[in-house]
Amino acid sequence: MNNQVNKTRHDGWECVHQFAQMARVIEKSEKTRYEIFKCVRTRSTEDIILEMEVLAGYLLEKCEELRRDGIDKADFVTIEEMD
């Protein structure tokens, strides 16, 4: 099976905008991660579970979208900028 090759001028994953979207959503859960690991109880278990369910659902949806778009089978190659 031949993988699709995407040429990009980016060294990072800027070329897959869904990754950045996912990372921003994960970052928003930082307060919850801190609360869990530092044992600082400010919210109910119900609220934490709901947040984790929403986060998991969103991430799963984005992963499925990436697979539908063939990103999981694609290769990315950084090219030099042309003058």
User: What structural class do the secondary elements suggest?
Assistant: mainly alpha
Instruction: Give the number of helices.
Output: 3
Low-confidence stretches: none
The beta-strand count equals 2
Major β-sheet strand ordering: 1-2
Oligomeric state, counting identical vs distinct chains: single chain
From the N-terminal CA to the C-terminal CA, the straight-line distance is 34 Å
Characterise the protein shown here.
This protein has 83 residues and is mainly alpha-helical. The chain has one domain (5-78). Helix content is 53%, strand content 10%. It is built from 3 helices and 2 strands, in the order βαααβ. The protein has helices at residues 17-28, 30-37, 45-68; strands at 5-8, 75-78. The protein has a two-stranded parallel ribbon. Helix 1 packs antiparallel against helix 3. It is elongated. The two termini are 34 Å apart. The mean pLDDT is 84.
In short:
With 83 residues, the protein is mainly alpha-helical. The protein has helices at 17-28, 30-37, 45-68, and strands at 5-8, 75-78.
Question: Which short descriptors sum up this protein?
Answer:
83 residues; mainly alpha; two-stranded parallel ribbon; 3 helices; 2 strands; 53% helix; elongated
